Amino acid sequence: MNEAKEALRNIEQNYKLFQQQQFTFIGALQHTRENAHDTIRPVASINQVQSYTDHHCNNTTDRRILTMFLNICNDLSKLCHKLETMHSGNSVTNGILERCKLLLSHSNDLSTIRAKYPHDVVNHLSCHEARNHYGGVVSLIPIILDCMKEWVAHMEKLPQRTLYNVSAGSAISEKRAPQEAPARAATSQTPHSEHLENQISTSNKDNVQVQGSERVWKKNLNDAEKHSGKHKGPWKPPGRHA
């Protein structure tokens, strides 16, 4: 957006220089129209000015001012196409650019357009010139500049999509974090759990081995008593025995 605003400011500066020479511009059109024997129809298109410049311009001053007009129109056209490819706005901003592109079309009829207040370019013409010959061609650039300023104003009101996407990405990351936390916790606890299980398993094995050893020892002891004849019955008191 800053680049677009800077380009628009540069075009405005060039137009201010051109506007200061409006009488020179009208004089150049008058001379070239006379040379082209085309003094009846109005100057109604950019193509017409280009044709006068290329084929019917006989002095440097006229060529310079006509070329200046054509260059400003060309710069505005390039800016329109650049903005169209760089920024996807809404129906309002797209409509503004479409109007600019139509007005800047070299074959578009400019004879009926008129720049209104606060522009005074038409007021600097005589009634005959404004009504019949030059009212449209002098109104073209100020009308386009107004449209471009309107486009910038509308675009600045739109949400910044880049920042929105970044925020959305952050929100997604924040949402994922709690969901992934249990998994990370489970993962981090797995080695400890496995260690405890291994300890429990080892303890159980040791208990089994100890219990098995006790049983074997008792069995061996009983077997030894049987073989040695030391295994006796229950004790009886001395005296008579049944």
Report on this model:
- The chain is an all-alpha fold and about 240 residues long.
- It has a domain of about 160 residues.
- Helix 1 runs antiparallel to helix 4, helix 1 runs antiparallel to helix 7 and helix 4 packs parallel to helix 7.
- The protein is elongated, with a radius of gyration of 49 Å.
- About 10% of the residues have low confidence.
The coarse silhouette is elongated
Q: Give helix % range.
A: over 70%
Distance between the termini: 123 Å
Mean of residue pLDDT? 78
Q: Report the biggest beta sheet as strand number plus sense, adding barrel if it closes.
A: none
- Work out the strand percent: under 5%
Helices and strands: which structural class? mainly alpha
Order of helices and strands: HHHHHHHH
Number of strands: 0
State the helix count: 8
Rg over CA atoms: 49 Å
Residue runs with pLDDT of under 50 for 5 or more positions = 162-178, 185-193
Protein name: SACA9 protein
Biased composition (Basic and acidic residues): 215-227
Pfam family, one: SPACA9
Organism: Thinocorus orbignyianus
